[in-house]
Amino acid sequence: MPSFSRPLEESLHRAVAYANQRKHEYATLEHLLLSLVDDEDAAGVMRACDVDLGALRTTLTNYVDTELRSLVVDDGEDAKPTAGFQRVIQRAVIHVQSSGREEVTGANVLVAIFSERESHAAYFLQEQDMTRYDAVNYIAHGIAKKA
What we know:
It is a single chain. With about 150 residues, the protein is mainly alpha-helical. It has helices at about 5-20, 30-35, 40-50, 55-65, 85-100, 105-115, 120-125, 130-140; strands spanning about 5, 25, 80, 105. A two-stranded parallel sheet has the order 1-4. Strands 2-3 form a two-stranded parallel ribbon. The chain is globular, with a radius of gyration of 15 Å.
Protein backbone atom coordinates (compact mmCIF):
# COMPACT_ATOMS: atom_id res chain seq x y z
CA MET A 1 0.00 0.00 0.00
CA PRO A 2 1.53 3.34 -1.02
CA SER A 3 2.18 5.97 1.63
CA PHE A 4 1.57 9.70 1.44
CA SER A 5 4.53 12.01 0.93
CA ARG A 6 5.21 14.43 3.79
CA PRO A 7 4.13 17.47 1.69
CA LEU A 8 0.88 15.70 0.75
CA GLU A 9 0.14 14.87 4.40
CA GLU A 10 0.64 18.55 5.22
CA SER A 11 -1.64 19.54 2.32
CA LEU A 12 -4.40 17.21 3.50
CA HIS A 13 -4.19 18.65 7.02
CA ARG A 14 -4.14 22.17 5.59
CA ALA A 15 -7.29 21.47 3.52
CA VAL A 16 -9.18 20.39 6.64
CA ALA A 17 -7.73 23.37 8.56
CA TYR A 18 -9.02 25.75 5.86
CA ALA A 19 -12.49 24.27 6.31
CA ASN A 20 -12.22 24.40 10.12
CA GLN A 21 -11.09 28.05 10.10
CA ARG A 22 -14.27 28.91 8.24
CA LYS A 23 -16.39 26.65 10.49
CA HIS A 24 -17.34 24.55 7.45
CA GLU A 25 -18.93 21.21 8.17
CA TYR A 26 -17.14 19.62 5.21
CA ALA A 27 -13.72 19.85 3.59
CA THR A 28 -14.40 20.01 -0.15
CA LEU A 29 -12.32 19.53 -3.28
CA GLU A 30 -11.97 23.30 -3.41
CA HIS A 31 -10.40 23.33 0.08
CA LEU A 32 -8.13 20.54 -1.14
CA LEU A 33 -7.09 22.36 -4.32
CA LEU A 34 -6.49 25.54 -2.32
CA SER A 35 -4.10 23.59 -0.09
CA LEU A 36 -2.39 22.05 -3.15
CA VAL A 37 -1.44 25.55 -4.35
CA ASP A 38 1.14 25.41 -1.52
CA ASP A 39 2.12 21.77 -2.09
CA GLU A 40 5.57 21.65 -3.73
CA ASP A 41 4.73 18.72 -6.01
CA ALA A 42 1.29 19.90 -7.12
CA ALA A 43 2.41 23.53 -7.46
CA GLY A 44 5.34 22.43 -9.63
CA VAL A 45 2.97 20.64 -11.99
CA MET A 46 0.58 23.59 -12.08
CA ARG A 47 3.43 26.01 -12.87
CA ALA A 48 4.63 23.71 -15.67
CA CYS A 49 1.07 23.82 -17.04
CA ASP A 50 1.09 27.65 -17.04
CA VAL A 51 -1.34 28.02 -14.15
CA ASP A 52 -1.19 31.41 -12.43
CA LEU A 53 -1.03 30.19 -8.83
CA GLY A 54 -1.83 33.62 -7.39
CA ALA A 55 -4.96 33.95 -9.52
CA LEU A 56 -5.99 30.38 -8.70
CA ARG A 57 -5.52 31.02 -4.96
CA THR A 58 -7.67 34.18 -5.22
CA THR A 59 -10.40 32.40 -7.18
CA LEU A 60 -10.48 29.48 -4.75
CA THR A 61 -10.41 31.68 -1.65
CA ASN A 62 -13.29 33.78 -2.98
CA TYR A 63 -15.26 30.65 -3.86
CA VAL A 64 -14.67 29.00 -0.47
CA ASP A 65 -15.49 32.21 1.43
CA THR A 66 -18.65 33.12 -0.49
CA GLU A 67 -20.13 30.08 -2.22
CA LEU A 68 -19.64 27.62 0.63
CA ARG A 69 -21.34 29.71 3.33
CA SER A 70 -24.09 27.09 3.52
CA LEU A 71 -21.52 24.69 5.01
CA VAL A 72 -21.01 26.85 8.11
CA VAL A 73 -21.92 25.14 11.38
CA ASP A 74 -21.04 26.17 14.89
CA ASP A 75 -20.75 22.79 16.57
CA GLY A 76 -16.99 22.83 17.19
CA GLU A 77 -16.53 19.58 15.24
CA ASP A 78 -13.70 19.09 12.76
CA ALA A 79 -14.67 19.32 9.10
CA LYS A 80 -15.22 15.98 7.40
CA PRO A 81 -13.95 15.31 3.88
CA THR A 82 -16.75 15.15 1.30
CA ALA A 83 -17.32 12.02 -0.77
CA GLY A 84 -15.64 13.76 -3.73
CA PHE A 85 -12.59 14.61 -1.59
CA GLN A 86 -12.36 10.97 -0.48
CA ARG A 87 -12.79 9.64 -4.04
CA VAL A 88 -9.96 11.85 -5.30
CA ILE A 89 -7.58 10.61 -2.60
CA GLN A 90 -8.65 7.01 -3.24
CA ARG A 91 -8.16 7.44 -7.00
CA ALA A 92 -4.67 8.87 -6.48
CA VAL A 93 -3.71 5.95 -4.22
CA ILE A 94 -5.02 3.36 -6.70
CA HIS A 95 -3.19 5.04 -9.58
CA VAL A 96 0.11 5.10 -7.69
CA GLN A 97 -0.38 1.49 -6.58
CA SER A 98 -1.15 0.29 -10.11
CA SER A 99 1.93 2.04 -11.49
CA GLY A 100 4.15 0.23 -8.99
CA ARG A 101 5.25 3.33 -7.10
CA GLU A 102 5.43 3.63 -3.34
CA GLU A 103 4.45 7.22 -2.59
CA VAL A 104 1.37 9.34 -3.31
CA THR A 105 2.17 13.01 -3.88
CA GLY A 106 0.20 16.20 -4.34
CA ALA A 107 0.81 15.85 -8.07
CA ASN A 108 -1.09 12.53 -8.09
CA VAL A 109 -3.98 14.10 -6.18
CA LEU A 110 -4.01 17.04 -8.60
CA VAL A 111 -4.44 14.65 -11.56
CA ALA A 112 -7.22 12.80 -9.72
CA ILE A 113 -9.19 16.05 -9.25
CA PHE A 114 -9.85 16.10 -13.00
CA SER A 115 -11.95 12.93 -12.63
CA GLU A 116 -14.46 14.93 -10.59
CA ARG A 117 -15.70 16.66 -13.74
CA GLU A 118 -18.65 18.38 -12.09
CA SER A 119 -16.53 19.98 -9.36
CA HIS A 120 -15.64 23.63 -9.19
CA ALA A 121 -12.05 22.56 -8.41
CA ALA A 122 -11.71 20.86 -11.82
CA TYR A 123 -13.46 23.80 -13.48
CA PHE A 124 -11.06 26.33 -11.93
CA LEU A 125 -8.07 24.34 -13.27
CA GLN A 126 -9.65 24.11 -16.73
CA GLU A 127 -10.42 27.83 -16.58
CA GLN A 128 -6.63 28.31 -16.51
CA ASP A 129 -6.31 26.07 -19.59
CA MET A 130 -4.89 23.17 -17.61
CA THR A 131 -5.97 19.67 -18.58
CA ARG A 132 -5.45 16.25 -17.05
CA TYR A 133 -3.36 15.41 -20.11
CA ASP A 134 -1.06 18.40 -19.47
CA ALA A 135 -0.51 17.28 -15.88
CA VAL A 136 0.08 13.61 -16.72
CA ASN A 137 2.41 14.53 -19.59
CA TYR A 138 4.52 16.67 -17.26
CA ILE A 139 4.58 14.09 -14.44
CA ALA A 140 5.41 11.15 -16.74
CA HIS A 141 7.75 12.81 -19.23
CA GLY A 142 8.78 16.15 -17.74
CA ILE A 143 7.22 17.92 -20.72
CA ALA A 144 5.92 21.34 -19.72
CA LYS A 145 2.94 22.78 -21.53
CA LYS A 146 3.89 25.10 -24.36
CA ALA A 147 2.45 28.57 -23.96
